[in-house]
Amino acid sequence: MNNLWAEYTPLFANGVWVTLQLTFISSFIGLAFALPLAFAALSRNPLFSAPVSAFSYFFRGTPLLVQIYLLYYGLGQFSAELRQIPWLWNIVKQPYWCAIIAFSLNTCAYTIEIFKGSFRNTAKGEIEAAIAMGMSQWQIFYRIIFPSGFRRALPAYSNEVIFMLHGTAQVFVIALVNLDILGVARKMQRATFYDFTPYLIAACLYLLITFLLVFIFKKCEKRWLSYLQTAH
């Protein structure tokens, strides 16, 4: 048993690192695109809002697993065409970056809806006060709507990051199968024929990461939403 732990502890440590990479890189990219897209989704001009709504509807309406298949295996049908664009082919041919793209697009779609609702629910009094002070629409957005909406969206967004963490386990369908936490557990199960221990270890690691994420977001909420507590 000691030899078993000595062999798989470094593998699980690397699995945690890969899982964290997939989670945080995807969440960061998704958030970076979701914020301006959420603002576009609120536009009264359908040229801006309709494409964003279609994008959000597609990625929220289809399973993440199907999206991974489409990106990793589906794009393989167009390998001849993609090879004509070397930089793009170098990205999509690698399972790691296909997973990052799939996760980023998926979390972006959900994050758009989170922030769209939060921006829309900005108190009318705040906006009216900004208008009375002579602020432009852009100033109203980045001085009033964005900071206020971002703080209110934080609890819902923290759940989305945790969902993204759990979603990374689905990379087992591509060549990252032995690199993330679940992949290492599957590898250990096949090598040792232990059906319970490997997945219990994986579950504990996911729980530990989830606990740390909840702790971090709770600290952020306590700091950035403290004005709501004092108001009551």
Summary, kept brief:
This protein is mainly alpha-helical. It contains 11 helices and no strands.
Task: Describe the fold and architecture.
The protein has 232 residues and is mainly alpha-helical. The protein has a single domain, classed as MetI-like fold, CATH 1.10.3720.10. The protein is built from 11 helices and no strands. The chain has helices at residues 2-41, 46-61, 64-74, 79-82, 86-92, 95-120, 124-132, 137-167, 181-192, 197-224, 226-231. α1 (2-41) crosses α6. The chain is flat and about 70 Å long. The model has no long low-confidence stretch (mean pLDDT 86).
Report on the biggest sheet.
none
- How does CATH name the architecture? Orthogonal Bundle
Shape: flat
- How many separate domains make up the residues? 1
Q: Strand percentage, roughly? A: under 5%
CATH topology: MetI-like fold
The assigned structural class equals: mainly alpha
SSE inventory with pairings:
Elements: H1 2-41, H2 46-61, H3 64-74, H4 79-82, H5 86-92, H6 95-120, H7 124-132, H8 137-167, H9 181-192, H10 197-224, H11 226-231
Helix pairs in contact: 1-2, 1-6, 1-9, 2-6, 3-6, 6-8, 7-8, 8-10, 9-10
GO cellular component, one term: ATP-binding cassette (ABC) transporter complex
Family: Belongs to the binding-protein-dependent transport system permease family. HisMQ subfamily.
Main location: membrane
List the keywords.
232 residues; mainly alpha; MetI-like fold; 11 helices; 0% strand; flat
